[in-house]
Every structure is written in structure tokens, then in C-alpha cells.
């Protein structure tokens, strides 16, 4: 199990990533809408990975469980894309 220092660093990283999402949309003269959108998606993926790894303790699990969860997340992504495509 991780110690308080690790959790604090992860918290600060999540706070910085959340601030980064705010910055993308606060400066339209620097970032276009699509750049801000893509940056927000990348930051959200990084935040999700940090939360899953440390706060849900997947980093301490055997690799087989991590791979199984990764495959499940990928399948949900495929289903979401398929559902979005069928709506159009």
C-alpha cells in the first residue's frame, strides 16, 4: 500500500491536471477549440489512469487483473463508438 506522500503527490498531480483543463478553455487566443478539446481528453485519460492505479489500487494487483480491466475498458470504448455511430 502506498504511503501518505504518494497519495499527496497524486492529489497534487490531479489538481494540476484539472487546472490544465481550465487553462485550455480560458485562453482561446492560444488554444483553438479543437486543441482544447483534444488536450482535455488527454488530460482526462491521464487522470483516469492515475485514479485507477493508485486510489483503486490496481498498481498493486497482478498484471493479469490489470490487463483484464484494460480489455474491459477498451470494449466499453468500442461499444460507445458503435452506439455513437448508430445514432447518426
TrEMBL record:
Transmembrane segments: 7-27, 33-55, 67-87
Keywords attached to this entry: Cell membrane, Membrane, Transmembrane, Transmembrane helix
CC per GO annotation: plasma membrane
Pfam families attached to this UniProt entry: COX4_pro
InterPro entries documented for this protein: Cyt_c_oxidase_su4_prok
Membrane topology value: Multi-pass membrane protein
Transmembrane among keywords: yes
Lineage top rank: taxon: Archaea
Primary subcellular site in the record, as a coarse category: membrane
Subcellular compartments: Cell membrane
Protein name: Cytochrome C oxidase subunit IV
UniProt source species: Natronolimnobius baerhuensis
